[in-house]
Amino acid sequence: MVVSKKLISAIKLSSTPAYKIAWSAGINPTTLSKLINTIEKPKANDQRIINVGKILGIPPEECFQEDQQQ
Questions:
Q1: For the chain, how big is the Rg over CA atoms in Å?
Q2: Which architecture characterizes domain 2-63 according to CATH?
Q3: Residue 13 has pLDDT above 90, yes or no
Q4: What's the pLDDT score for residue 70?
């Protein structure tokens, strides 16, 4: 399981900097960076990712996708 391309695009295209999105979602910006760069893989329904999705208006089911590198 990885963060979806849709959520990553929304973070990058947002007028709000990624670090502010992370703080608003209650996570450290470094953690968010690790998650979107697949350094750290989220578990299914990871609340940290769901919180980021809520801030950006993306429903939870669209925040995750299967890892294509398996």
A1: 11
A2: Orthogonal Bundle (1.10)
A3: yes
A4: 52
